[in-house]
Amino acid sequence: MDLEPIRAKIDELDRELVDIINRRLALAQEIGQIKRVTDGEVYVPEREDAVFRKVFASNKGPVNNEALRAIYRELMSAGIALEKPLSIAYLGPEASNTHAAAMKKFGVSLDYHAMASVADSFAAVEKGEADYAVIPIENSTEGSVREALDCFVESDLKVVAQLYTEISHALISNEPLEKITTVYSKDQALAQCRYWLQRHLPQARLVEASSTSRAVQIAAQESGAAAVAGELAAQFYGVPVVARAIQDKADNTTRFFILGRKPTKPIGGGKDVSSFLISLGDGASDRPGGLLKMLMPLAERGINLSKIESRPSKMRPWDYYFFIDVSGHHDEPEMQAALAELRKFCPLVKWLGSYPAVRRESD
Questions:
Q1: pTM for the complete prediction?
Q2: At what angle do helices 4-38 and 65-83 cross, to 10 degrees?
Q3: Going by C-beta distance under 8 Å and a sequence separation of 6 or more, which residues neighbour residue 353?
Q4: pLDDT tens-digit readout, 262-319
Q5: Residue 224: what pLDDT?
Q6: Residue-level pLDDT at 99
Q7: CATH superfamily entry for domain 272-356
Q8: C-alpha distances in angstroms, 105 versus 43, 75, 108?
Q9: What is the homologous superfamily of the domain 170-243 according to CATH?
C-alpha cells in the first residue's frame, strides 16, 4: 500500500491547478481593465449566478455543489480584488453573524468595514464610503428585521443579491452557567433563543445590544455577564463557549440582502425576485378590498407573491407601507404592466431591487 505514487499525482495536479487559477485570474484582471475604461460594475450578481449554475451543471462529483460554491467564491473574490478593491459594509463589530454572511458572500480578498447599525450600513453605501452593504432582513424564527425595512423608506439603494445562511447561537461567557446573571445580544438573537434561556437561565436579565459581537465584547468585561452569539465571535474575542446550539429551532436561518447603488440586469427564466414598497394611501388599507385591489394587477399577470409584510408609515396613525417580494424582474414586460396599473391608485410604488432567486448556498 504505497502512498507515494498517489501523492506524486496529487502534487502534479496541484501544480496544474495553481497554473489554471492564475490564468483564470489574469483573465479577470483583463476584464477589470476593460471595465475601468467603460465604467462597468465590478461585482455583477447576475453574472455570478450564471457562473455558479454552469459550474454546478458540469459537476460530476464526488465534490458536492456547496463545496464547489465555497471554492469558486474565493476564486471570484480574488478576481474582484484584482479588478478593483471593493469595500463591503456590514453590521459589526467584527465576527458578527452579518460579518460571517458577508465573508460567505464575497470571500476573504475584499475590504470589510464594521458599522454600528443597519442604518449606518445604508449610509456608508449612499455616501460612497463602501461599495456594497450586507444587512440582515429576516429570520425564519423571528421574522423581519424592522430597522432594515424602515431604512428602505428613505433610501434609494437597490437590493442586488440575497443570501440565506443557517445561524447557530452559543452562550458565551467567562462565567459558568450558574453564575450568569445578565445575557446580552441583538434583539433577534435573544428572541431566537427565548425558550432555551427561559429553561436554563430563568432569573437572568436579557439586555439588548447593538449586535451579537458587541454583546460578546460586553460579556468579556462584565462580571456575571454572558452573550448570545456565534462561535466565531467567541473565538475572535477570546471568550469561552458555555453552551452550543442554543437556538430554539434547529433550522434557524437568516436572510441577508446585499445593497448597492446600481440595479441588476434580468437573468430571466424565472430566476429573478423583485422587492417593492407600496402604499395604498391615507386609510386605504382599512377599506374593504383595498389590499386585494393592490394584489390583483400582479395575480392577473401570473406574478407570484412570495412575501408581504406591513409596517407603520410613521406619517399618520394607522397608515401602513407594504413590503412585498414577487417573482420576476422589474424590467420584464408583465411586471412593468402590473406596476403601471398599481401606480394609478397607489401613491407610492417604490422598487427596492431585483436579484437572483437563489435560496440556499447549495442551490
A1: 0.88
A2: 50
A3: 157, 158, 159, 160, 257, 259, 263, 264, 274, 275, 330
A4: 999 999 888 999 999 999 876 555 566 778 899 999 999 999 999 999 988 877 776 7
A5: 97
A6: 94
A7: ACT domain (3.30.70.260)
A8: 11, 12, 9
A9: Periplasmic binding protein-like II (3.40.190.10)
* Cα–Cα distance, 267 to 354 (Å, whole number): 10
Neighbours of 170 (CB within 10 A): 26
Burial class (CB in 10 A: 0-12, 13-18, 19+), 90: buried
**195 phi/psi in degrees, rounded to 5:** -70, -35
pLDDT in tens, 111-134: 999 999 999 999 999 999 999 999
**Which of 294, 297, 309 has its CA nearest to residue 348?**
294
Query: Pairing state of beta strands 348-356 and 241-243?
Result: unpaired
Distance in angstroms (rounded) separating the CA atoms of residues 327 and 49 = 16
Q: Per CATH, which fold does 4-83 belong to?
A: Chorismate Mutase Domain, subunit A (1.20.59)
Which one, of 270, 267, 342, lies nearest residue 299 by Cα? 342
Q: Kindly tell me the sign of the dihedral angle through the C-alpha atoms of 211, 161, 132, 339.
A: negative
Mean pLDDT of 182-205: 96
- Nearest alpha carbon to residue 146 among 156, 135, 157: 135
